[in-house]
Amino acid sequence: MLPATAPSIWTLFVEMLGCLLLFDFQYYIWHFLHHKNVWLYKKVHAIHHKYTSPFSWSSQNLGGYELMTLGFWSSTNPLILGCHPLASWACNLLGIWLSVDDHSGYNFPWSLSQILPLGLYGGSFAHDVHHQRPDTNFAPFFQHWDCQCQI
To answer: For the chain, give me the number of helices (H) and strands (E)?
Structure first.
């Protein structure tokens, strides 16, 4: 059953940010391991790197295992964090939009990489570098994991 009331804007923001950060951490570890293990890369993740110069819809070019893993995290993270269903749905939409934007090859004025200060968000430039040199930029959204791990 759905809650009787919608969350406040602040609660919605905090819950969505929590889901994005948790997903970013999970995917960073998963992505790093799949690039460092030759078997995992070839059998699971290589399909996503079919394009060295990605375009927007290549963001969803995934194998079955990768798609199920991402779907699992996207579905369970809001439950783990106790998020309102609206935050869960909004975060899924935001995650897809960010992934498509990251694979577009463009830094639009409305791209998060242009809005957030200090290079906190990698955007399409960082993701293009990852597709050209797959030994760097493993985080899907935020840059702090790559910076902290010096990768």
So the answer is: 7, 0
